[in-house]
């Protein structure tokens, strides 16, 4: 990985940036762990403000400051929008890092650690979706999608490609506000699209066909493909294109979206890897068939997002103008959305792992002490503080038992089943796709196991909403099985045309304000 000079951040920053110490914060618990570092919930000791601290991982850097972090900081410093995470400041830890026994950690030329300080967000979309029995209402999906598109439109207008849109990078707070986060793979682009960019970006399941076919000249349309995948996932209840490796990913895309030709996608045959990866047979597009139970406006928008040719793919701005957002039921106002106990992907995964361990322990115990006539008391497994909680319940519901405190613990072992979702990090155990950009050759790298459920379209139809964890029968989608479900604030699905309920934030359809930055 390219690095900046040791000790140099090279940022035109105000003097206060980076001058405060981590001691100004009390770390509360770990809430995330990604490729580039751990994320902690923390409290500013003076103001008591709750923040998220993203520790910049330095252990792979022989010298200097990781270029990915520099990019992320530079880009975040110039983006200011309600739907983009706000980088508040950078703080440093003063001394050499010590382990839990107080021993100095070696091999790091930097004396201390560096943290990015963000406003705390209660959930990420993956964590929220993974809650048992989670159901999003249609206005809720519209509300999240609209905010996602507004944030992304703002990035694109400011010539920033996100390049890693996925559920765990969409943060949501308990006021219903969604923010784009994790700009670690983001970069600026110029409108002429002539610069050569790496095509090894975007988490596999959300990666568009042009990148899988080796394109290095691309633009905002790459993010819009990912948005289409997220949109379908929200409605369908589980990821729609869970490929295990790049060739399989492309196959899955073709099976859903049909095979491209020069007519449907001019220039496709000239893409670097087309000849190697061209489909062996012609497949017709099946988006309409597979998602036939979606609302027609949703399906129409999805078709435009999952368009193979990036030049014909809908832009964020045009998507915001789609009928989907302007027909009943309207998008919910964010503050009307239900509040939930905090849920980040890191924690929900961990809870599931603990649950599995508890179940296995229970099975073992049963084998060792068979007692056919008595019911065993439930095993109280350490780290299962919420076993009584129907955690899909919104917090506002007086009948929903609430957790007394945080549901997650500080230490998270790396390695199999650990939080590092990319093979590059040495973890083979996660059901997560290769993030790209850091891996080996096109099809040579180790590929992840799929932990989120089997084939996406069993029987060619909607099937059940098996849920993101696969097989638990509790999908969070608002697809057919849930369509009758009415939002928690009682919005019916068949109102009379455009009414007074229409997005307050947006004004009229053609006069939407996507923020105050234009
Ligand atoms: N401001 C925040 N508030 C609350 N949680 C956050 C915040 N920022 C990040 N997180 C949590 O930490 C997780 C990882 O953060 P982030 O994606 O920024 O790190 P990363 O190292 O780039 O991860 P990845 O490799 O998964 O992309 C997020 O999915 C989210 O659950």
UniProtKB/TrEMBL annotation:
User: What name has this protein been given in UniProt?
Assistant: Protein kinase domain-containing protein
In this chain, composition skew of type Gly residues spans 426-443, 458-478
What family does this belong to?
Belongs to the protein kinase superfamily. CMGC Ser/Thr protein kinase family. CDC2/CDKX subfamily.
Q: Which GO terms describe its biological process?
A: positive regulation of transcription elongation by RNA polymerase II; response to virus
Q: Where is the composition biased (Polar residues)?
A: 381-391, 501-518
Catalytic activity as recorded in UniProt: [DNA-directed RNA polymerase] + ATP = phospho-[DNA-directed RNA polymerase] + ADP + H(+); L-threonyl-[protein] + ATP = O-phospho-L-threonyl-[protein] + ADP + H(+); L-seryl-[protein] + ATP = O-phospho-L-seryl-[protein] + ADP + H(+)
Q: Which SUPFAM superfamilies match?
A: Protein kinase-like (PK-like) (SSF56112)
Bias class Basic residues marks the residues at 364-374
Ribosomal protein as UniProt keyword: no
Report the GO molecular function annotations. ATP binding; cyclin-dependent protein serine/threonine kinase activity; RNA polymerase II CTD heptapeptide repeat kinase activity
- UniProt: ATP binding residues: 54
Gene Ontology cellular-component annotations: cyclin-dependent protein kinase holoenzyme complex; nucleus
Regions of compositional bias (Basic and acidic residues) in chain numbering: 336-348
Domain (Protein kinase): give its ranges.
25-325
Q: Where is this region: Disordered?
A: 325-518
A Pfam family (short name) is Pkinase
What the entry lists under SMART domains is as follows: S_TKc (SM00220)
Instruction: Give the record's keywords alphabetically.
Output: ATP-binding, Kinase, Nucleotide-binding, Phosphoprotein, Serine/threonine-protein kinase, Transferase
The organism's place on the tree of life at top rank: Eukaryota
Q: Where is the composition biased (Low complexity)?
A: 444-454
């Amino acid at each position: 990985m390219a690095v900046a000079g040791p000790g140099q951040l090279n940022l035109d920053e105000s003097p206060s940036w980076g001058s405060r110490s981590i001691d100004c914060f009390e770390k509360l618990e770990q809430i995330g762990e990604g490729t580039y570092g751990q994320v902690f919930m923390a409290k500013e000791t003076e103001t008591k403000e709750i923040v998220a601290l993203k520790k910049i991982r330095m252990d792979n850097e022989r010298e200097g400051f990781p270029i990915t972090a520099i990019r992320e900081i530079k880009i975040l410093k110039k983006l200011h929008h309600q739907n983009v995470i706000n980088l508040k400041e950078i703080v440093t830890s003063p001394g050499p890092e010590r382990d839990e026994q107080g021993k100095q950690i070696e091999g790091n030329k930097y004396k201390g650690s560096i943290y990015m300080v963000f406003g705390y967000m209660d959930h990420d979309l993956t964590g929220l979706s993974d809650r048992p029995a989670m159901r999003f209402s249609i206005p809720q999906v519209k509300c999240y999608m609209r905010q996602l598109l507004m944030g992304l439109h703002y990035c694109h207008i400011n010539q920033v490609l996100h390049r890693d849109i996925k559920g765990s990078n969409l943060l949501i707070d308990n006021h219903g506000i969604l923010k784009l986060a994790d700009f670690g793979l983001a970069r600026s682009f110029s409108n002429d699209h002539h610069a050569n960019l790496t095509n090894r970006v975007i988490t596999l399941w959300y990666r568009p066909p042009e990148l899988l076919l080796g394109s290095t000249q691309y633009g905002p349309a790459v993010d819009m493909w990912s948005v289409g995948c997220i949109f379908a996932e929200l409605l369908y209840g589980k990821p729609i294109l869970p490929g295990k490796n790049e060739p399989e990913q492309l196959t899955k895309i073709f099976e859903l979206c049909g095979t491209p030709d020069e007519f449907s996608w001019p220039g496709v045959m000239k893409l670097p890897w087309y000849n190697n990866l061209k489909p062996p047979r012609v497949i017709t597009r099946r988006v309409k068939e597979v998602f036939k139970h979606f609302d027609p406006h949703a399906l129409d928008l999805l078709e435009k997002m999952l368009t193979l040719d990036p030049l014909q793919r809908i832009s964020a701005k045009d998507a915001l103008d789609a009928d989907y957002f302007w027909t009943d039921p309207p998008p919910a106002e964010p503050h009307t959305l239900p509040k939930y106990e905090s849920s980040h992907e890191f924690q929900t995964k961990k809870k599931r792992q603990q649950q599995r361990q508890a179940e296995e322990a229970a099975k073992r115990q049963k084998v060792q002490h068979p007692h056919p006539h008595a019911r065993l008391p439930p095993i109280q497994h350490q780290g299962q503080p919420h076993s009584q909680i129907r955690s899909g319940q919104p917090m506002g519901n007086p009948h929903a038992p609430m957790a007394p405190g945080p549901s997650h613990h500080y230490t998270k072992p790396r390695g199999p089943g650990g939080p590092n979702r990319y093979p590059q990090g040495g973890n083979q155990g996660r059901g997560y796709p290769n993030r790209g950009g850091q891996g080996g050759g096109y099809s040579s790298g180790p590929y992840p196991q799929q932990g989120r459920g089997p084939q996406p379209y069993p029987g060619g139809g909607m099937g059940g909403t098996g849920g993101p964890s696969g097989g638990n029968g509790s999908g969070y989608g608002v697809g057919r099985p849930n369509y009758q479900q009415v939002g928690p604030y009682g919005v019916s699905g068949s109102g009379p045309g455009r009414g007074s309920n229409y997005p307050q934030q947006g004004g009229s359809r053609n006069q939407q304000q996507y923020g105050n930055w234009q």
